[in-house]
Structure formats: C-alpha cells, structure tokens
C-alpha cells in the first residue's frame, strides 16, 4: 500500500511537471517561428481565371497580398502607416478606421487595404491587399514596396521572402 501511494505521488508529480512545461515549450516554439518570420515580407498574387469571367466586358483584376511581422507595437505601425498614406500625394485615403487599424486607399483605378494586427504587446502584423487591372505588373511591386517602405519608416530592415 505504501509503495502504491509513493508511486502514485511520483506519477502525479511527474504529470504536474510535464503539464506545466508543455505550454512553455509551445510558447518557445512560437517565439522561434516568429523570429524566423520577423521582418520578412511575404507576398501572394492571384490572377483571375479566364473561365471565371462571365461578362466579356468585365475588367479582370489581379490581387496582391503582402504581409510582414514586425517587432513593433501595432499602435506604432498604424501611426506610421497613417502618416505615410496621409502625406503621399499619389494616393487618396478612402477611409481610415483607428478601431480596426485599417486604411483603404485608391490610386487611379487601383485600390488597396492596409491592416495592422497586434500579435502581442510589441509584435504586430502588417498586411496590405491590393488590386489592379490584369496585366499591370507594377501593382505587385507597389504593394511589396509599400510594405518595405513602412518597415524603413519604422527603422526596420525588411527583406522580401522567397515564395
């Protein structure tokens, strides 16, 4: 009986130690992944399928997404993005929502939405989604360049990741 109580105590103690260490391990792995992704601008482009165009006169669009994780507070990223877009004479700010940290922009027939998300107190994600008429390759460059410029404006050196 004494041996089984002692064995039970050892097993219970081991489970408590193991259970307490698992969240730390998971958090450490998340931090490792976040540091590997930090300051890397990732991009995705989606062309509209020719088979999806129902109306031949409907203008096809290309969608570009650029995202970067920064070790900067979301509030600071949003402030820099707001100032940068407000001071850019080439773009029109369609809307700016501080509650959702979202800015909608327009430049000629192109549009973009910039969103900042807090991942924790000092880490944030900047995402820019833009659209342009099909065949206009500069939109891809504009979206990625906008993300890199915002990084530079915050004193961060961002690089474009390989996809």
How does this model look, in words?
It contains 3 helices and 7 strands. It is an alpha+beta fold. It folds into 2 domains: 1-37; 40-160, Alpha-D-phosphohexomutase, C-terminal domain (TATA-Binding Protein, 2-Layer Sandwich), CATH 3.30.310.50. It has a 7-stranded mixed sheet with strand order 3-4-5-6-2-1-7. A hairpin with a 2-residue loop joins strand 4 (102-107) and strand 5 (110-120). It starts with a helix and ends with a strand.
Total number of domains = 2
- Can you identify the CATH superfamily of the largest domain? Alpha-D-phosphohexomutase, C-terminal domain
Task: List unreliable stretches of 5+ residues.
Answer: 4-22
Write the CATH architecture name of the largest domain: 2-Layer Sandwich
Number of strands: 7
Straight-line N-to-C gap: 62 Å
| Largest sheet: number of strands, sense, barrel closure | 7 strands, mixed
Helix content: 25-40%
Run of helices and strands? HEEHEEEEHE
Give the key terms.
single chain; 163 residues; alpha+beta; TATA-Binding Protein; 7-stranded mixed beta sheet; 3 helices; 7 strands; 40% helix
Topology (elements, then pairings):
Layout: H1 2-37, E1 40-47, E2 61-70, H2 74-86, E3 92-97, E4 102-107, E5 110-120, E6 123-133, H3 138-153, E7 159-160
Parallel strand pairs: 1-7
Antiparallel strand pairs: 1-2, 2-6, 3-4, 4-5, 5-6
């Amino acid at each position: 009986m004494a041996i089984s109580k002692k064995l039970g105590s050892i097993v219970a103690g081991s489970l408590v130690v193991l259970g307490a260490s698992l969240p730390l391990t998971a958090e450490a792995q998340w931090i490792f992944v976040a540091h590997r992704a930090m300051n890397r601008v990732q991009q995705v482009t989606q062309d509209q399928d020719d088979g999806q165009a129902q109306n031949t006169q409907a203008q096809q669009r290309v969608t570009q997404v650029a995202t970067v994780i920064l070790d900067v507070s979301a509030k600071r990223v949003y402030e820099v993005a707001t100032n940068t877009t407000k001071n850019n004479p080439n773009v029109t700010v369609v809307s700016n929502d501080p509650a959702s940290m979202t800015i909608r922009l327009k430049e000629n027939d192109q549009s973009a939405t910039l969103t900042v998300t807090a991942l924790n107190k000092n880490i944030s994600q900047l995402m820019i989604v833009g659209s342009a008429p099909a065949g206009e390759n500069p939109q891809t460059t504009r979206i990625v360049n906008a993300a890199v410029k915002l990084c530079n404006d915050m004193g961060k050196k961002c690089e474009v990741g390989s996809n």
